[in-house]
Design goal:
globular
Length: 253
């Protein structure tokens, strides 16, 4: 069974591609995460967990869900991480998670996808040629990963150096607390109050007041709200003004 969380479609693409290649079912975890639904998930085949990388790690809400949910049937677990180019300590977290749950860690694969983080000028959006090239490379890498999984082999995660752990582990929660805030989110007058942003927030952090979204205190900068807005009327301060919103489905894959 392929389990995934995706905000802008990159990880959804990877998960569904893997599921198609190995002929397995695919489950979006968003509603389970939102509802704190930790009911048992059963699979005769290995579990393949697909998630994006936030601040060099597995997203905190995905990690929390995986710690609490019961995975029954197969004891083997693979991880597929999508990122702009660096997966940080995610493979270590995956290995430790399996160890604590009595599961067999079968390795991880890093899939590099087009950038989607528009709430920073440090990560400019990529041109069409780069986006299409990255998607093509991702398909090739997913095909190879699927072959390994079908054969029951082990995915070879990149080596994580000790100094990375020393930097990432204390840095990640501090960065989330100080930088990944929702204070700068606002909507333009073109907002139609459709509530799509409310439905897509993994933290249940957005509510509607007078048919306009209001952000609470929890945020992970997943970009689900701002990138999926049908009117593109959500902004994050001045940083996102005039920037294209990235969604995988815009590329017709």
């Amino acid at each position: 069974m392929v389990l995934y969380y995706s905000a802008t479609g990159n990880t959804e693409f990877a998960a569904k591609e893997i599921a198609r290649l190995i002929d397995d079912e695919c489950l979006n975890l968003l509603q389970k995460i939102q509802n704190a639904d930790y009911s048992e998930l059963y699979s005769d085949k290995p579990f393949i967990i697909c998630c994006p990388i936030y601040v060099c790690e597995i997203p905190v809400f995905v990690k929390r869900f995986l710690k609490k949910v019961k995975l029954a049937g197969s004891r083997e677990v693979y991880f597929i991480f999508t990122s702009g180019g660096y997966s940080g300590c995610a493979s270590i977290s995956g290995r430790l998670l399996c160890l604590k749950k009595g599961l067999k860690y079968k390795g991880s694969e890093d899939i590099f996808m087009p950038r989607n983080y528009i709430a920073s000028d440090a990560y400019p959006m990529q041109d069409a040629a780069t986006v299409r090239s990255k998607i093509a490379d991702a398909k090739e890498k997913l095909t190879k990963a699927a072959e390994v999984i079908k054969a029951g082999g082990k995915l070879k995660a990149r080596h994580v150096f000790f100094f990375e752990v020393l930097i990432v582990e204390p840095f990640e929660p501090v960065w989330r607390k100080i930088v990944l805030t929702s204070k700068a989110f606002y909507t333009l007058d073109s907002c139609i109050g459709c509530g799509k942003c409310v439905k897509l927030c993994p933290f249940n952090n957005i509510t509607l007041a007078d048919k306009k979204p209001v952000w609470g205190n929890k945020c992970t900068h997943c970009m689900a709200c701002i990138s999926n807005c049908p009117k593109e009327c959500i902004e994050y301060g001045k940083i996102t003004q005039g920037k294209d919103r990235y969604l995988f489905k815009k590329w017709g894959e």
